[in-house]
Amino acid sequence: MKYSYASQEIKNYERSSIAKSETNDCFVRALASATNVDYDTAHSFVKEEMNRKNKKGTQNLEIVNAMKKFELNGLKVGSREYEVEVIKKPLLTNKYKLYGEYIHRQKTVKSFMKSLPKGTFIVCVSKHAFVVKDGVLIDNKGEEFRPTRKVLAAYAIDEKVVNKQLELF
Q1: Kind of pairing, strands 128-133 and 136-139?
Q2: Distance CA 130, CA 9 (A)
Q3: Given this structure, which CATH class describes domain 2-159?
Q4: Where in the chain are the domains?
Q5: Is the dihedral of CA 86, 34, 122, 115 positive or negative?
Q6: Most buried by CB count within 10 Å: which residue of 11, 15, 27, 141?
């Protein structure tokens, strides 16, 4: 499993005074990593759009409701625009045969990454969020070796391509 630290992926993370004083900011880091914006921009966006309180984390219900809204209306973080797709339950479960019956179980992080190797995803597990970008897990230090966590929700993030007309003169 390929791994990268969110603190290395986020623009200007080391220079952010907000980042130095924050705790429980996994969703802010995930959004910054997924959208390629700096930490301060992602922090203010999550604070405004998802009612995040400083040092308190982003509540799961706020994430779910916001992502559904962004799926319908699009996501604009800073000057960049993105399309959001809420990954449906069939893609978040594996089907197993147990004693002659088929059952569905939540995918693990490792299984999720194997089934969706391309694209950018914000992934939510119990009390935590991180990014999977083209098969690379982008997360905080200390979270590297936890591939068996169950994926509770996932959101595909794609930057909108704006058609710009080129002028010759």
Answers
A1: antiparallel
A2: 12
A3: alpha beta
A4: 2-159
A5: positive
A6: 27
- The answer to whether the beta carbons of residues 91 and 114 sit under 8 Å apart is no
Per the CB < 8 A criterion, the answer to whether 109 and 123 are in contact is yes
Give me the phi and psi of 149, to 5 degrees please: -65, 145
The SS3 assignment for 2 reads: strand
**CB of 56 closer than 8 Å to CB of 24:** yes
Tokens 């700096």, residue located: 38
**HEC string of 107-130?**
CEHHHHHHHCCCCEEEEEECCEEE
Residue 1 in tokens: 């499993």
DSSP state of 38: B
Length of the chain equals 169
pTM: 0.89
Model pLDDT for residues 1-53, shown as the tens digit of each residue: 788 888 888 888 888 999 999 999 999 999 999 999 999 999 999 999 999 99
Instruction: Report how far Cα 162 is from the mean position of its chain's Cα atoms.
Output: 22
Say how many C-beta atoms besides its own lie within 10 A of residue 99's C-beta.
5
Q: What is the distance in angstroms between the CA of the first residue and the CA of the last residue of the chain? A: 49
- How many other C-beta atoms lie within 10 A of the C-beta of residue 154? 22
